[in-house]
Amino acid sequence: MKKWKFVIIGVIGISIVVFMYKQHQTILEYRQIPYYSLELLASPIGKVIELHENDDNYEDDERKEMLEDLNVMFSTIFNRAGVGLTTEQKIYDKYYDEYNDARADFAVILEKYMAAETPEQHEQAYKALKEVYDEYQLFLEQAAEDLMLPDPTLQ
Question: Per the UniProt record, which residue ranges are transmembrane (predicted)?
Answer without folding.
Answer: 6-22
